[in-house]
Specification:
Keywords: Methyltransferase, S-adenosyl-L-methionine, Transferase. This protein is 35% helix and 27% strand. The protein is an alpha/beta fold and 222 residues long. The protein has a single domain (5-215), classed as 3-Layer(aba) Sandwich (Rossmann fold). The chain has a seven-stranded mixed sheet, with helices on both faces. It has a two-stranded antiparallel sheet with strand order 6-7. Bound molecules: S-adenosylmethionine (SAM).
């Protein structure tokens, strides 16, 4: 199957900035209390359900994968960028990290107990989100949980051309959708949205951050 062109663009850009990003991004333990509470709630849900491992899709340098693991979650990471995966493996040699796309997970139907997408879905053009959400649903066991955290906006498309921390130039397309649109797409994919958070932009940021907890319904055969 031929790859969608936007995936190659994302891969190349994150390969370029991977080392800067790994330095720039906060350790999850230093995140604000609500972000940590949402991750803790997700960790509690997936460990209590005990349905299978949790995929951190778009894991980057693996800091959040390792944080989840520290909360007792059987977590592994998946990222499009081979350089990010190299850095994640080097920093967390005890954990599994795979190169791959969130829209084609290397997991059997119903194999996963959890899927985390932490600031990783915004690079997908909106028309690609239904396919990614359908893939999360397919890979999750019935009763399994998804946590998606992303900045939201009014159907905005931004193009940045510089790297994290002012590093090497690299283009990044980002799409900021309204919370209702994201929740609606999750429901259309077959998820039951079980919780939503909305955080005002922190100092220096323009857009609020939304968190979506969603569950694959029992009896769902997708
Ligand atoms: C902003 S970084 C977030 C990394 C990590 N989740 C964190 O919070 O530190 C976005 C990551 O998502 C990855 N990514 C973007 N689109 C992806 C896709 N379709 N499949 C897999 N990974 C993707 C990028 O390569 C990048 O490493």
């Amino acid at each position: 199957m031929t790859e969608a062109p936007h995936l190659n663009a994302i891969r190349q850009s994150y390969d370029t900035v991977a080392a800067d990003y790994a330095t720039f991004v906060k350790d999850p333990g230093a995140l604000d209390p609500l972000s940590r509470a949402v991750l803790a709630a997700f960790a509690e849900l997936v460990t209590a359900a005990g349905l299978g491992p949790t995929a951190d899709v778009g894991c980057g340098p693996g800091k959040v994968t390792a944080y989840l693991s520290g909360l007792g979650v059987d977590a592994f990471g998946v990222d499009l960028s081979p350089r990010m995966v190299e850095l994640a493996r080097a920093a967390h040699p005890d954990l599994r990290f795979d190169v791959g796309a969130m829209s084609a997970l290397a997991a059997d139907d119903g194999e996963l107990g959890g899927v985390l997408a932490f600031y990783s879905t915004h690079h997908l053009p909106p028309e690609s989100l239904p396919g990614a959400f359908a893939e999360f649903l397919r890979a999750l066991a019935p009763g399994g949980h998804l946590l998606l955290v992303t900045r939201v906006g009014e159907e905005e498309h931004q193009r940045r051309t510089y790297g994290y921390g002012g590093g090497d130039p690299a283009p990044f397309d980002s799409y900021r959708l309204p919370t209702d649109r994201i929740a609606g797409l999750l429901e259309q994919a077959g998820f039951a949205v079980t919780g939503q958070t909305l955080q005002a932009p922190e100092e220096g940021a323009k857009r609020p951050v939304a968190g979506f907890l969603a569950r694959k319904p029992e009896g769902c055969r997708a």
